[in-house]
Write a structure and sequence with these properties.
The complex is a heterodimer of chains A (about 425) and B (about 600). Chain A is α+β, with helices and mostly antiparallel strands. Chain A has twelve helices and ten strands. In chain A, strands 1, 2, 3, 4, 5, 6, 7, 8, 9 and 10 form a ten-stranded mixed sheet that branches. Chain A is globular, with a radius of gyration of 23 Å. By secondary structure, chain B is an alpha/beta fold. Chain B has three domains: about 5-150, no CATH class; about 175-285 and about 375-390 and about 460-475 and about 490-585, Rossmann fold (3-Layer(aba) Sandwich), CATH 3.40.50.300; about 290-360. Chain B is built from 22 helices and 21 strands. In chain B, the strands form three sheets. Chain B has a twelve-stranded mixed sheet with strand order 9-8-21-20-19-10-18-17-11-16-12-13. In chain B, strands 1-2-5-4-3-7 form a six-stranded antiparallel β-barrel. Classes of the chains: A alpha+beta (about 425), B alpha/beta (about 600). The interface of A and B includes residues 49, 100 and 104 of A.
Chain lengths: ~425, ~600
């Protein structure tokens, strides 16, 4: 046990911090009070749910999730990463007990789900720009678009309406991207931590699987769920993504939109301020057990953004629309992001808030229907299935490392230690 | 091994069975498997393929516990309660993520003998490799598959039932070898578990075996099997439902019936109560007081040392007439206390009121002994007898046959045998039987005093049933002189076996239990009895507690010291068995092909 826990000095320090937190919270509470009425009257909506066994169109729904570990093996400053991904693909099932059923053999025939989960590796050393070079190579190897300009362009196209990167010259300096980004998605001055590097590879590996689904004509899903958000981390003082995965995400979202695929990025663990208060408000406004959602508008929307996240620059993310939703009284509200361009084209009706609301309800009605599996009631089932397939457990990792050791012996590489550094001292 | 036999031994699990799951964890005795979410009953036999160490092995796994396993769900109760709480909740495509977690015992494994090209069964000293493939036998191929792999574990001449596979039976016959019958058989089960039906199946199997032996077709020329079967409810002959043993008798033609069943098979204390159709094959059971020996009574009743001393003294003085001597005494004899004298008279008093035990007249004991030495099955209706009468009859027959076999075993010639038998048997009985028996015991065609005698193992295996066994095979009675104690210990030498039938195991004497080398356990509900049954089994069946509780009527677990594995057995209904086999009792020769009959 950490011995200081019981000392009064320790307790005093901790209490001081918590009081600071409280003070900050109380300051923001005022912001919530200013938003409260608008949330209650304009943004919060009850879902008119489908009946238990509804008659619905025939369509596919899908999800992609990924996992990985940055240190499946380490040799001096060399790191070997593993990335995994899984696709779940379901189809409406008019006669089944559940309204959807998993698509197995058909998907395999169509070249999807050939191996579930899929995995791949990535390695780099600490030498000079080795990590950046290898990241560039890996992204282009994973993602099915070879031309980097075609990956970069969709972001600017959606943001500025340009049709080529050359047109960026007509825009302000914050949109001017260096050639290195045009050519490799990576700027020369980028500094990547091991964790960020791993995250980038993992994200692109996931997006590549989603792109496969979008491209597949035979079983193209109507809804495609991603784990997380559509957040784009932008470079300081610039208005384009800091990391390659941001460009890749916008390319994916753009191609999905063109093919009629609705992308929703869902996070059950999120940092939306006052989400719990919004949930409490929903229980006060609606009858018990009502399934609901709440749009979190941006400054570009009618009425502007909410006070509660005014200082959170990523809520909602650039080119995205964010909602909170809750389909089960047992769960905390989750967050879902949609592509803003798609949303403007399909949900939002300018000057007509009622039709916009009706469109939102129709959208969430479908998502709610996809979230009734008893194992994960309230959470979109395709995502849950994909998550379960791709997750690397501690045991999985141990087995992978064991295999790595055996292979090292086989190829006679004089490194026998593949465990994380210093594991031998248990520090 | 010839090519045909080798071909018969070919096993291809992928074709003959269905891939069903994988090994998850466990050791060399018990395993946990993860299997398809299918309809699997406890008691089913699964096969596990192993190539560990480069050896081809197929493990046998008996399912003892089945539970649902939901992948990715730590608490299934959360899912179930969600389904209850939210009526719009569903479960998507369960077959992909629902599994069965199956626990059970490894019975052993068959290993391919590469040199001989045959599968050899071995007790479980190994465990299959990680995630080894688990197969479920298909009904149509199970007979060959299990027969080939399990072979010696099922062999024998006395059919008991079919190998149980969950709640059905595979077409694989489970038999008992005749040579192990004299190592005694225990049949344990609660009321309604199917003991009577099992006895009828066994009696039929004895008769079938004797038929085959007399036809010269029984394998390895095993001896005949005789049985003295106590029938406390008078149901064996007429059956509990449609057919009984009598239907077998009636199905035979005269010559076969005479050969196999003799001129009677049914014994009763009161012939007038016997149905007409059976009466032709019935005898009224009578045993003379002179044919009772003190040891017979010591085996079934509690006598104090003083009482035994008094009885032994009278027996030493007057010999076979000891019962009438004591019963006719009016005065307390010298040297005996009045209390002891009166207590002995009280214990013997039931003989005075018995129709079965008589002071004078004709006895059927010699006919019974002759029948048993001739390989015949006798059914003894004890429904009209008192328990004491039933126990005494069983004891006298057991002791008499034991004395004869003992005399035979310790004799080189017929002359020796006669002398020894005369010393052991009551005088009158010896006089009546010795001429009839001589021909049976003599080895060779001549039967003079110098003729060598047969070994008891060449004579029929005599099986004596002990019904309501706790009454006479309890530890108290076993402390003293008991015929059953001797037979249980030495019966094998004399080719005499006991069939001990009881609803309770815990109250039986441990010496007797330890001698039961074959145990057929039917359903038991009582925890104590289940534990005793498991403790007493010749092989390790710990962990089978639930199996005993979930057994249906007619399901049994067969354990034997001469076998490596416990065998779950489904005992067929006697009626079905008879329906299936009744044609075989008609005349004509055996249809079974024998190697002796085959063309070179």
């Amino acid at each position: 046990m950490f011995p200081h826990v019981v000392t009064s000095k320790f307790r005093k320090k901790l209490k001081a911090v918590l009081l600071d937190v409280k003070a900050d919270f109380e300051r923001r509470e005022k912001a919530f009070e200013r938003d409260e009425r608008r949330i209650k009257e304009e943004l919060l909506a009850a879902i008119d749910c489908h009946p238990p066994r509804p008659k619905i169109d025939d369509f596919y729904i899908a999800a992609v999730d990924g996992s990985g570990h940055p240190r499946v093996a380490t040799f001096d400053d060399i790191r070997v990463h593993i990335v995994t991904r899984a696709i779940s693909l379901l189809r409406t099932s008019p006669d089944g007990d559940a309204p959807f059923q998993e698509v197995g053999p058909q998907a395999r025939d169509a070249g999807l789900l050939t191996e579930q989960p899929e995995s791949d590796f990535f390695w780099h050393s600490g030498v000079g720009r080795d990590a950046l070079e290898k990241l560039k190579e890996t992204i282009l190897e994973f993602y099915p678009i070879d031309d980097t300009e075609k990956i970069v362009l969709p972001y600017f196209k959606d943001l500025l309406g340009v049709s080529s990167l050359d047109e960026l010259a007509d825009h302000s300096p914050e949109y001017q991207i260096p050639n290195s980004v045009r050519e490799s998605l990576i700027s020369d001055d980028m500094i990547l931590s091991e964790r960020t590097l791993h995250e980038q590879v993992m994200r692109v590996y996931e997006y590549a699987a989603a792109r496969q689904l979008v491209e597949n004509e035979e079983m193209r899903p109507r809804y495609l769920f991603l784990d997380g958000s559509l957040t784009l981390f932008l470079r300081r003082s610039r208005s384009y993504p800091s990391y390659p995965s941001g460009f890749v995400l916008r390319e994916l979202v753009s191609s999905a939109r063109k093919r009629g695929v609705i992308i929703g990025a869902v996070s059950k663990d999120h940092t939306i301020p006052f989400a719990h208060r919004i949930a409490t408000m929903a229980t006060e406004v609606f009858p018990r057990g009502t399934k609901w959602f709440c749009r979190l508008p941006s400054d570009d929307d009618p009425g502007h953004g909410l006070e509660i996240y005014k200082d959170r620059i990523y809520i909602p993310p650039t080119l995205a629309v964010t909602y909170l939703f809750c389909f089960s009284p047992d769960n905390r509200p989750s967050r879902i992001d949609f592509d803003r361009i798609w949303w403007l084209e399909n949900i939002f009706v300018n000057g007509d808030p009622e039709t916009t609301r009706a469109n939102e309800i129709t959208l969430f009605r479908d998502i709610e229907l996809m979230s009734r599996d008893a194992r994960w009631y309230g959470y979109p089932v395709p995502l849950a299935l994909a998550h379960n397939e791709c997750t690397l457990t501690r045991d999985n990792l141990r087995a992978i490392r064991h295999e790595a050791r055996a292979l090292l012996r086989e190829i006679e590489l004089d490194f026998t230690e593949v465990n994380p550094l210093r594991e031998d001292y248990n520090l | 091994m010839n090519a045909e036999t080798e071909k018969n031994q070919e096993i291809d699990l992928d074709k003959q069975a269905e891939l069903f799951g994988r090994v998850s964890s466990g050791d060399q005795t018990s395993l946990v498997l993860i299997c398809n979410d299918d309809d699997l009953a406890t008691g089913r036999l699964l096969l596990i393929r192993s190539t560990r160490g480069g050896e081809e092995r197929i493990f046998f796994f008996l399912v003892l516990r089945v539970s649902n396993y939901l992948k990715y769900v730590d608490k299934a109760e959360d899912v179930a309660s969600t389904l209850v709480a939210f009526e719009d909740a569903y479960l998507i495509d369960g077959s992909l993520r629902f599994f069965l977690e199956v626990e059970g015992h490894l019975l052993g494994y068959a290993q391919k003998n590469k040199q001989k090209g045959v599968w050899e069964f071995r007790p479980s000293k190994r465990t299959p490799e990680h995630f080894a493939h688990v197969y479920i036998p298909q009904k149509k191929t199970a007979e060959k598959l299990i027969g080939t792999l399990f072979g010696p574990q099922l062999d024998g001449e006395i059919y008991v039932g079919d190998l149980e596979d969950g709640d059905t039976a595979l077409p694989v016959r489970v038999n008992l070898p005749v040579k192990f019958l004299p190592m005694h058989l225990g049949i344990f089960g609660s009321t309604g578990a199917g003991k009577s039906n099992l006895m009828m199946v066994l009696i039929k199997s004895f008769i079938d075996h004797n038929l085959e032996v007399r036809r010269g077709a029984a394998r390895s020329r095993q001896p005949l099997v005789s049985a003295f079967c106590i029938d406390p409810h008078d149901e064996f002959a007429t059956g509990t439902d449609t057919y009984g043993i009598h239907d077998i008798v009636e199905a035979m033609d005269d010559s076969r019936r005479n050969e196999v069943m003799g001129d009677f098979y049914y014994l009763t204390s009161t012939i007038r109560a016997v149905p007409r159709e059976i009466k032709r094959y019935a005898r009224e059971l009578r045993i003379l007081w002179d044919e009772i020996q003190p040891e017979d009574l010591y085996s079934i009743m509690d006598f104090s040392p003083q009482m035994s001393w008094f009885i032994d003294d009278v027996y030493a003085r007057v010999g076979d007439r000891w019962v009438s001597e004591i019963l006719n005494m009016i005065e307390t004899p010298q040297g005996v206390t009045p209390g002891t004298f009166r207590a002995v008279q009280r214990r013997l008093a039931f003989l005075k009121n018995s129709d079965l035990f008589v002071d004078s007249g004709a006895s059927t004991l010699d006919d019974i002994i002759y029948a048993l030495e001739n390989g015949r099955v006798l059914i003894v209706n004890t429904s009209l007898m008192s328990s004491t009468e039933q126990f005494l009859v069983t004891t006298i027959v057991t002791r008499t046959i034991s004395d004869l076999r003992r005399a035979l075993k310790s004799s080189m010639t017929l002359g020796d045998f006669k002398k020894q038998a005369q010393e052991r048997l009551p005088h009158g009985l010896y006089q009546r039987i010795h001429e009839r028996m001589i021909a049976l015991y003599a080895r060779g065609r001549t039967a003079n005093d110098d003729s060598p005698v047969a070994s008891p193992t060449e004579l029929p295996a005599v099986m004596i049933t002990v019904e309501e066994a706790p009454s006479i095979l309890n530890p108290e009675l076993m402390k003293g002189r008991s015929v059953f104690k001797d037979v249980s210990r030495q019966g094998r030498k004399f080719n005499i076996g006991l069939i001990v039938i009881s609803q309770q195991v815990s109250v039986l004497d441990r010496v007797i239990l330890s001698q039961m080398n074959t145990q057929i356990s039917l359903r038991l509900n009582n925890k104590t009895e289940i534990k005793s049954c498991i403790d007493n089994a010749s092989i390790n069946i710990s962990g089978y507690e639930d199996k005993f509780r979930t057994m249906a009527r007619g399901e049994a677990l067969l354990t034997a010291s001469y076998r490596d594995v416990p065998l779950p057995v489904k005992i067929p209904k006697f009626d079905d068995l008879f329906e299936h086999d009744k044609r075989r009792y008609k005349g004509g020769t055996s249809k079974r092909r024998t190697t002796r009959h085959a063309l070179p």
